């Protein structure tokens, strides 16, 4: 009888205990999705990576991980190797992610840092004239990070350094071109 009471108490306590709901399929699907998406990105197949993560959202629309897909899409859009991506669209995607997540977002800090880095890169690209000028997106209200800009003197110094390097490279290329011209003019040497 005593064993019966002990078992009954254990069952009652076990029934009252609240165990966290774990969905191993979703977690393993998440890991698999990120693994194969990363493999596609490493291979330069951004379209396939996008399709994989979009499929995850379709299959697991209400999962916490599905809410984090926007971060990964933004990261892949910002990748310079992605021919379909750009700084402007990546920044816009990060803004959207930051606006849609609360403080519990898995990648919120990383997204804020990446956004600031992308905005700085966009400013350098637009300032140096090496790429199309793009409008800098305003920082979302939820992102309280201040972007520090360089002074005019620092920018001028950086541009002068870049110009000097470009002149050196041009001189090297011109010398090589002259050498090739001479060699073509006198093929017997």
Question: Mean pLDDT, rounded to whole units?
Answer: 76
Fraction in helix: 55-70%
Using the alpha-carbon principal axes, give the shape: elongated
Order of helices and strands: HHHHHHH
What is the number of E strands? Answer: 0
Radius of gyration: 27 Å
Q: How many domains make up the 3D coordinates? A: 2
Task: Characterise the protein shown here.
- The protein has 189 residues and is mostly helical.
- It has 2 domains: 24-148; 149-179.
- Helices cover 70% and strands 0% of the residues.
- It has 7 helices and no strands.
- Helix 2 packs antiparallel against helix 3 and helix 4 packs antiparallel against helix 5.
- The longest helix is centred in the last third of the chain and has 34 residues, at 152-185.
Task: Give a short summary of the structure.
With 189 residues, the chain is an all-alpha fold.
